[in-house]
Design a protein that fits this description.
Layout: H1 14-24, E1 28-31, E2 35-36, E3 42-43, E4 46-49, H2 56-59, E5 66-69, H3 77-87
Parallel strand pairs: 4-5
Antiparallel strand pairs: 1-4, 2-3
């Protein structure tokens, strides 16, 4: 497929876009977060911060261009590792940056 014909950031239909909008609603958005349905269902690549490790964006796969950041306490390394193990129920790989 030609590169100019490919758009990997666009959900196919409205029912694919709504769950993404609901998942990021009310969270701290660093960049992106807007949705445009004037020509398809485009969701701008989005980076969010989420302080609730049990929320949808931390535990489920968001099928869209959304990256979730969770800032953990520096001195609680073992607790943070346990938190990663408990939230990644779908084999999603949490990334730790130190």
């Amino acid at each position: 497929m030609r590169r100019d014909k490919c758009n990997p950031g666009r959900p196919v239909r409205a029912r694919s876009e709504r769950p993404i909008q609901e998942a990021i609603k009310g969270l701290s958005i660093f960049v992106g977060g807007t949705c445009d349905d004037s020509k398809g269902y485009f969701i701008e690549p989005t980076v969010i911060e989420n302080s609730n490790p049990k929320s949808v964006t931390m535990c489920e796969e968001i099928v869209g261009p959304v990256l979730t950041i969770h800032v953990y306490p520096e001195k609680k390394w073992k607790k943070t590792l346990a938190l990663c193990d408990s939230t990644a129920v779908m084999d999603l790989a949490p990334q730790l940056l130190v």
